[in-house]
Amino acid sequence: MFYDADKVMFSAGAVVFDQAGQRVLTVVDRRGAKPTVYFPKGRIEAGEVQEDAARREVEEETGVVCRLWPKMMGMEVRDSPAIGKTKVIYWYAASLVSIGVQRLEGHEMFTASWVSIDEAPHVLSFEQDKQLLGICRAYIEQEGYDHQTSPQPSSEI
Domain of life, per the record (predicted)? Predict the structure, then answer.
């Protein structure tokens, strides 16, 4: 399939796990009638590599500094009629390093929240995010989980 470059937006994001590997970081967007819950992600800036964009977007949207795991978890292509573009999203898994300050842009109105990995499939708003979580969990089972020495986050950031 061919995509016109002017009609494609490249983004990157991450599924961030807490120190114990028992919770994942989500973004809760409360702009609509019903909150939308998803993993942090955002546009790759000019000259930026996708891994740097994933880390930057997680930190800006949630205040969480993370360390990406060595393998990209997947790539998602979705049509976004609201902006008239096709989004290509590079997805990573990551571990919590530290918690800092959330730096939202003017139009962004959401909070960050930690959700147990068992509860997450029931909370996430998008089927693709649920599939991504399944891929990450399978990777953990196959490769193991790299524990961090950083403090446990609270349920709300």
Answer: Eukaryota
